[in-house]
Amino acid sequence: MSPQAPQPSAELLAEPMRSRWSASVYDASHRLSDAEVETLLHAAQWAPSAGNSQPWIFFVCVPGTANHDRLVANLSRGNSGWVPRASVVFVTAAHVRSGEEDDAPAFSDYALHDVGQAAAHLTLQAHAMGLLTHQFAGFDHDALARALDVPATHQLLTGIAVGLPGDPADVDERTAARDHRDRVRKPLAEWAFGGVFGEAEVADSQA
Ligand SMILES: Cc1cc2nc3c(=O)[nH]c(=O)nc-3n(C[C@H](O)[C@H](O)[C@H](O)COP(=O)(O)O)c2cc1C
């Protein structure tokens, strides 16, 4: 069973939102099939986007491949203990500018929104397939963008680690403890406004 039971106020959500959480202990011996990886990418592919602009790029980083080596070499210290054990890691980028020049017009005003949404769809598809996920941004973006040949029209954004739960005994104590951290959220009153900005009129049974 997952070390993270659904939290109060998540209990009424539909699956897989209800059970999603960011796991850090992965089974390093598990690999996804090519078909499973493709299904995850199809989830991102069918996300909505402004004007159907689909401004996303997903780099696929499977352990043992050059892309995985490129990613692992550029992880932050905090992420280097757990990310490499995931079965696959996707690294996202957004098509932000229509030309390479500094003053080139935006490709889409909503590119970052759309890539985030595609990442969310992939994440939820993974949980629906019985997998765990953990999104992260702790890596050297400039160095990884260079290593992946990302053109100036695109902005490297985040990673999404996907895999199966591992044995906490196989990782260091700090990594194992990450899976038992409290998951907390701001109350709705701080960010759901029924009136003008700051005017919380939305009922929050948890407040
Ligand atoms: C854009 C983004 C960047 C994140 N960066 C990191 C990271 O570098 N390292 C990490 O361990 N977790 C990272 N996280 C995971 C968040 O800390 C986590 O989603 C948040 O604490 C909520 O926990 P939950 O996903 O279990 O609900 C990131 C999440 C997002 C969406």
TrEMBL record:
Residues 18-61, 74-163 form the Nitroreductase domain. The keyword Oxidoreductase applies. Pfam families: Nitroreductase (PF00881). Keywords: Oxidoreductase. SUPFAM superfamilies: FMN-dependent nitroreductase-like. GO terms for molecular function: oxidoreductase activity. InterPro entries: Nitroreductase, Nitroreductase-like. It comes from the Bacteria. Belongs to the nitroreductase family. This is Nitroreductase.
